[in-house]
Amino acid sequence: xxxxxxxxxxxxxxxxxxxxxxxxxxxxxxxxxxxxxxxxxxxxxxxxxxxxxxxxxxxxxxxxxxxxxxxxxxxxxxxxxxxxxxxxxxxxxxxxxxxxxxxxxxxxxxxxxxxxxxxxxxxxxxxxxxxxxxxxxxxxxxxxxxxx
Length: 148
Hints:
Layout: E1 8-13, H1 19-30, E2 35-40, H2 51-59, H3 74-78, E3 82-85, H4 88-97, E4 105-107, H5 125-145
Parallel strand pairs: 1-2, 1-3, 3-4
C-alpha cells in the first residue's frame, strides 16, 4: 500500500530537542520533496538539539545543525497533512492542543506494530543509539509507505 496524499509531515515529541529533530531530519533526507518539520508538546522553546542527540545523529551522518525547539500550536498543526508522534500519550496531548488534528495524528512507529519510541533525554549514549535506530526504522517505513 502506498500513501501519496500526504505532502507535509509534522513530527512531535515532548521537548523537541531529541527525538523529533532526528526524525525531522531523517524524513527530510528520505522525502526531500515533502514539507517536514518538528515541534514538541512541552517544547524547550528556542533550544538547540540536545548534545547527545547531535552526537548520535552525527555518528550516522545526519546533521541537526540549526535546529530550534518549537512548541506545537493548533495553527501549526493545521498546516500539516500528517502528524507523527513518539508515544501514545502524545496522541492525547496533540488532541488537547489541536482537537481537529486527531484524525491525522499517528504514531511514528505505526508500521512497526504501533511501537512507541521512548524518550532518551538525560539517559545514556546507548539509550540514544537505540532510539536513533527505532526512529530510523520508523522513518524508513513511512517513506516507503509514502512512495519515496
